[in-house]
Amino acid sequence: MSSINQIYLDNAATTYPKPEEVYKAVDLTLRSIGVAPGRGGHARSMEAARVVFRTRELLADLLGIGDSSRIIFTHSATEAINLAIKGAIKPGDHVVTTTMEHNSMARPLHNAASSGAEITWVQADADGYVTRAQIEAALRPETKMVAMTHCSNVTGSVNPVEEIGPLLRSRGILFLVDGAQSCGCYPIDISTMCIDLFAAPGHKGLYGPPGTGFLYVAPGIDLHPLIHGGTGSGSSELNQPQTLPERHESGTMNTPAIAGLLAGVEFVAQRGIDSIHAYEMDLLERLEKGICGIQGVTVYNAASKKPKCAVTSLTMEKKDSATIGFLLEHEYGISVRVGLHCAPLAHKTIGTYPEGTVRISPALFNTASDIDRLIFALGAISSMHT
Ligand SMILES: Cc1ncc(COP(=O)(O)O)c(C=O)c1O
Questions:
Q1: Are residues 200 and 313 in the same domain?
Q2: Nearest C-alpha to atom 12 of ligand 1 is from which residue?
Q3: How far is residue 244's CA from residue 154's CA, in Å, rounded to a whole number?
Q4: 2 assigned to some structural domain
Q5: How many angstroms does the Cα of residue 100 sit away from the middle of ligand 1?
Q6: CA-nearest residue, atom 16 of ligand 1
Q7: Residue nearest to atom 15 of ligand 1 (CA)
């Protein structure tokens, strides 16, 4: 296999590399357990079930979840969001969302609208933030759900879910939060934030393998399953089981990937989310300081003092984002993501549609010297004649 020696600054897509323990856990589980969890009384199946159980328990501890059986494993945050929306929203329901959503949220909501739901899109400001007051103003007597991202994958803006959750709980409105960019790298307590449905990937801030994700479903909420099938329980019944998590976990699970996720969550828990956030914010600050002096560069959400995660976007006068991404990759060995980042509405909100931006997203395995190399490269590109 060829080894690619690039500085990777696209951790908002998926974190890379993973901690060594994650690679080992996937390999070990596939070799030494490698069977379906909960599908037999034999030792391997029981051990596989224990791995899956421990992952749920550790996630519950990390995120302030009381009952780990209400964590449903999915293949991605996208699948988790789809389960939440398709499982809860019916024609005639009203849903409030924001203009900063990733297509993982925006498309299922648009699809719900085409089946008779009504969606209100709350306009975020030019840095990507919405306020509790804006969300409150959009609520109606028939509002069923507020569905929104915690952190934008374009500007890194972190929305005040801790203020919005209690308001919605007091009104009996479901609160669906997309934690794709915050889970693992920003402090989250699902119980005190009053989040009813929390969707997250396992492969970003939790450092698990691609193909992992989960949805937390608060007590008292029954979602219609996205898929029906074998669960290893209640097998004589044609009806899908009512109990969680089996109700939403039909089919053989990817136990090696979940074992990798377990190792990733252990890694995050050991480092501590506060210290991960502080480390990543130092990298972001270094980056923002370093590029603010470069001729013709605009950095989005750089001036705001509101909460952020380590995701930022920039544009450069007279240079399109695709060219900058190409030069960074081929001349300077730095991988970033350019374009619309599956979030066209967010780019409309910050004024960068349809060209998009250059997105930079450092994570735990990046260093100050990676950031300095990027700053140097951006400076050099800005002074190139086109
Ligand atoms: C804000 C946001 N939501 C959802 C997703 C989708 O995550 P996944 O790739 O796990 O489906 C992403 C991925 O980039 C994201 O940034």
A1: no
A2: 180
A3: 34
A4: no
A5: 12
A6: 153
A7: 180
